[in-house]
Amino acid sequence: MGILGRIFGQSARKNFFPPPPADAPPQPEGYWNIIVDENGERVTDRPAAATDFIARRPVEYIDGGTEPAFKKDPRQNETQNAQAMVDYEIRSSKNREHLQKAVFLLSQTDDGVRLLQKAKEMKFTLVFDSESCAEMNAVGLCDYANKKIPLAEGRSAAEVALTLKHELQHMEDISRGMAYDLSDTPRNAILVNRALEGNARVSEAVAAAEAMMGSPHGPARQFRTAALFNCMWNKNPEIAKEADAAMPDAAAGKWTQFAAKVLPAYFRETATLAYYDNNYYKYIDKFVPDVSNSIQQAKDGDYQHRAAHQRRVEQTKSNANTLFTHDRWTPEKLASLLTIRGLPYMQDMGKKGFSLASDAAVALTEKAPALFEKLKKNIQAVLPESDKPAQLDLPVAKVEKPAVPAANPYARHASKLEPETEFAVIRLPNRVDGSKLTNGMRSHESTTQLFGDIMKNMNTGGTQTDRINYSVGQYLHHNRGVANVRGLVGNLLQAGLIAPLGAFPEEYTFDLCKRVMLSVREHNGRPADVSPHELKLLDHWQQMKDKGLDPMWIDAPNKQASWVARPTHHKDVYAEMLLSALKDNRAATQTLATAQSRPAAGAK
Question: Can you tell me the distance from the alpha carbon of 500 to that of 509, in angstroms, rounded to the nearest whole number?
């Protein structure tokens, strides 16, 4: 057995993942200079440990935010507009974090770095736009004309990373001219579309493999994860199974052979192929619809409507005349353009017994022939002597029994990237990073220590909300910061403080309320004057409300026991206004974040 056999024999998966143990904390090395834990989160609450990893800094990208942006509705009152704005800003902040994490994950792969850099060079914007994605029943799109990659909301960072890699591959392939239009023959159009989509799936497989193996140019202790591979296994099991079998090629740097083995699996993803067959039908039907009724009305209708029907018939006839006049996408032409990691690989396809020149490459899925029969009739209605309908006679794939799902060999690592955490009503500051102060301490470490000392030395009594309220007040007093309440509370939030509304002094609730309400009143397309950490705080209060808790006092017993909440204390009207800016329930707002789950589509 040769060296590859010894490496990739029975212990192949053990060599891919998890990363090897270490005797000491990782050290910065070249581009790898960020310390992260096993979930890819930056280590901020403790010194680096031997269990940590070293990661590359994320590639810079153009962030387009979340669309459509919040727009003040003159039909709604101020409270309703405040609710809509706060909800939008919270969603937008969460999307930004997901995109940052997704870009971080792709930045740990060589091909991800290459495509992200290309996207920035080509001035592509990455944006969350669930409405556009829902219209296409997609989780991601490549809007090449507008240089934009829209992504759907409500998915994990690993899912967003795979979708983004898919669409970035479309960006590169379309930049080489790969697309189809009305003039392409049906065989050509279906062939180039399947090549584009299949190549994007291969690109996802490359990202999953690279994320698990790490870069050959990186340190041994570089961050690696099976999260992308697990995500791919759940979404495209046929692709994942072939990618797993081809991992030895990937590990040996034989990426063209890896791609040649993975691509044929795309042609077994029946549901995905059916989706695109249906899309092609709708594309042609839009330009050459059924005008049989208009033909009849143009003959028999009254004069007033006859002209309109005739114009519709003539336009459809003109469109039909442009159909199927080009036969440009030969398998050889595709082989010269289609690449993975910048390398052509389709010359290796024959080695797996699959060829883009075969009928299997364009065989229609089960329901497509019936749809194409409708297209034939539409064309024949306006071009009765044409042979164009015959070009829609494509081979039909055999209906096969679904394959028995294979067990995911990396399932035990599935939850490592984003572990489920129990909802905590209160979280104290717990960060030790930040910029260095004059005394040598880190800024967040200083805040964490000071706040902890105040809580430790205060008199007991009252509820936990009361004790935090007192500690926040003492922290402000210690820093003589009543005049800078926003900045000092911001320090606490950056250091990790999360608590109910009643834990914060009225000076701060007044300041936060004023900024939220002014953002609504004076909104002119700018984001709200609220920091990302404050948005997390607002989201925390919203989650408390969604869980049936009191965002102000936690619950009735806590409110009754609280000395801050005593009736002798005057009512905090600003806190009440902030509470009114929270939605009663989030069900309606979640509809945008639940676009139907299916493989990402590339808009042509």
Answer: 12
Closest Cα to residue 169, out of 143, 140, 199, 133? 199
Number of helices (H), then strands (E), in the chain: 23, 7
Per-residue pLDDT tens digits for 413-436: 766 676 666 789 999 999 999 898
Euclidean distance between CA atoms 194 and 134, whole angstroms? 21
Euclidean distance between CA atoms 359 and 456, whole angstroms: 75
Whose CA is closest to 225, among 406, 48, 45, 41? 41
DSSP state at residue 360: G
Instruction: Return all residues near 348 (Cβ < 8 A) that are at least 6 apart.
Output: 256, 257, 259, 260
**Token pair for residue 549?**
């808790």
Q: By CB neighbour count within 10 A (0-12 exposed, 13-18 middle, 19+ buried), where does 355 fall?
A: middle
Q: Where are the alpha helices (DSSP H) in 344-404?
A: 368-382
Query: Distance between CA atoms of 601 and 351, rounded to whole angstroms?
Result: 28
What would the pLDDT profile of 290-348 be if each residue is shown by its tens digit? 999 998 888 887 767 788 899 999 999 999 999 999 999 988 888 888 899 999 987 76
* 381 within 8 A of 292, measured Cβ to Cβ: yes
Strand duo 53-56 + 32-36: pairing = antiparallel
Q: Which two tokens stand for residue 440?
A: 């040598």
Distances (CA, A) of 385 to 25, 252, 375, 379, 390: 77, 57, 15, 10, 11
Regarding pTM above 0.85, the answer is yes
Nearest to 118 by CA among 127, 110, 128: 110
CA angle, residues 464, 470, 474, in degrees to nearest 5: 140
DSSP character for 597?
A: P
Per-position b or e across 454-484, b if 16+ CB within 10 A of its CB: bbeeeeeebbbbbbbbbbbbbbbeeeebeee
Query: Which of 260, 395, 280 has the alpha carbon at shortest distance from 335?
Result: 260
Q: Computed from CA positions of residues 299, 305, 307, 309, in that sequence, does the dihedral angle turn out positive or negative?
A: negative
Task: Report the distance separating Cα 247 and Cα 205, nearest Å.
Answer: 10
C-alpha 160/C-alpha 158 separation (Å) is 5
Hey, what are 312's tokens?
């519709």
417 contacts 39 by C-beta, under 8 angstroms:
yes
* Residue 62 backbone dihedrals phi, psi, to 5 degrees: -95, 115
Q: Tell me how far the alpha carbon of residue 354 is from its chain's centroid.
A: 32
Asked if residue 523 lies in contact with residue 82, where contact means CB atoms within 8 angstroms, the answer is no
- Distances from the Cα of 559 to the Cαs of 270, 424, 442, 464, in angstroms? 57, 18, 36, 11
Per-residue three-class SS string for 551-566: CCCECHHHHHHCCCCC
DSSP single-letter state for residue 440: S
Where the chain has pLDDT below 70, the residues are 1-15, 303, 348-353, 414-416, 418-421, 481-483, 523-527, 568-570, 585-604
CA-to-CA distance for 557 and 225, rounded, in angstroms?
44
